[in-house]
Amino acid sequence: QLVESGGGSVQAGGSLTLSCTFSGTTDSTYSMGWVRQRPGQDREGVTVLYFGSGVTYYDDTVEGRFTISAGDAKNTVNLQMDHLRPEDTAVYYCAADFTGRGFQYWGQGTQVTVS
Questions:
Q1: Among positive and negative, which fits the CA dihedral 39, 96, 76, 46?
Q2: pLDDT digits (tens, 9 = 90+) for 11-29
Q3: pLDDT at residue 2, rounded to an integer
Q4: Kind of pairing, strands 105-106 and 31-37?
Q5: Which residues, 6 or more positions from 104, have their beta carbon under 8 angstroms from its beta carbon?
Q6: pLDDT value, residue 72
Q7: How far is CA 89 from CA 7, 10, 14, 30, 115, in A?
């Protein structure tokens, strides 16, 4: 029910924008964010947006380069990724929390490759 789009291949220093939309029905959204899995590594949190407060958090590895924002459509988030590095190469997963108890919904993942 989380549908991601926008992955692809880009050269180092380039930019990509990922989008994620929850296609189901919900009264409210607590938070949405992105988690990535780099080759040979465990999943790691990248960024999260808390919808009620607008507060955002970023992993140190992407701070200042990535920007998460709420999309125009309900239950949508965008991830603007600038100044991409080869080490950003990963499968990026969108995640959503509708209860405040942690991410319950996950997208299928979208590949980002930086060369």
A1: negative
A2: 999 999 999 999 877 778 8
A3: 92
A4: unpaired
A5: 96, 97, 98
A6: 84
A7: 10, 10, 12, 28, 8
